[in-house]
What does this fold into?
Amino acid sequence: MTSVPLLSRSALDRAEELRSDTDALRAGWADAQVLKVNHRGQVRIDDTDLVLEPATTLGDEPVAGAVFLGRREGRHLWAVRVPAMIGQLGDLRMVGHRLDDSSAGILTTAVAVLNWHDSAGFSAVDGAPTTPTVSGWSRHSVSTGHEEFPRTDPAIICLVHDGADRVLLARNGNWPERRYSVLAGFVEAGESLEACVAREIAEEVGVEVRDIRYLGSQPWPFPRSVMIGFSAVADPDAPLTFADGEIAEAHWFARDEVREALALGDWTSPADARLLVPGSVSIARGMLEAWAS
It folds into this structure.
């Protein structure tokens, strides 16, 4: 990697020591700001930044369901799920590349934690309803008091190359034609990251890989993952098979072809090209840029 993945940038002071300090949170509420997020992960934006609103628009003290994100410029910062919003809206995929480090960290964190709350209304241990605690950073079972924390699902993403000038890219069966990316998959229970790389590549395209190397990571709150990037080497003459049905097609592309695709932009490009690659908000883009250069 030649640069930090866009969604890994964060200058947010999470102020974890304040999450359980009810008095401090109440005192900071009067001057606090809140980021409102709808159920599609969209927020209000202006041309270059997030639109934050006074927290007091929600009430005189911290409201149930709000998540304390931390501090920015000395002010407390919260996030809350709202049913609808008006104005100019955008989500992480649309505006992540336009945000500075602080705002990127704010939006990524807000979306990740709120997505977890949406699916954590009942305890995974006893099935009882749960209620938010620790200013949104845990939930307690109303039956047993069992505490659960925001869940993150680890996934590997791997740039497979031949050790020279070719890279293996694949198209998911749900993607339009010509849209390709590097291979990825979720880590299974009891599995190391490196073992996951080898298994996923074998399952998805039927080739064995070697020289597995860590590249970097990026939060990916869609809905609650972290993408852990690797590179690996494979034999370009090995036959490609798509046993698990997830991959529709895969091909080896030359370095010059990848450079041309990067120059065209991303998947939204209208160009009639054989290859289109992901946009800058994805760690896959950074991996391809580093390899291409």
In short: The first helix runs from residue 22 to 29. The CA atoms of residues 8 and 218 lie 5 Å apart.
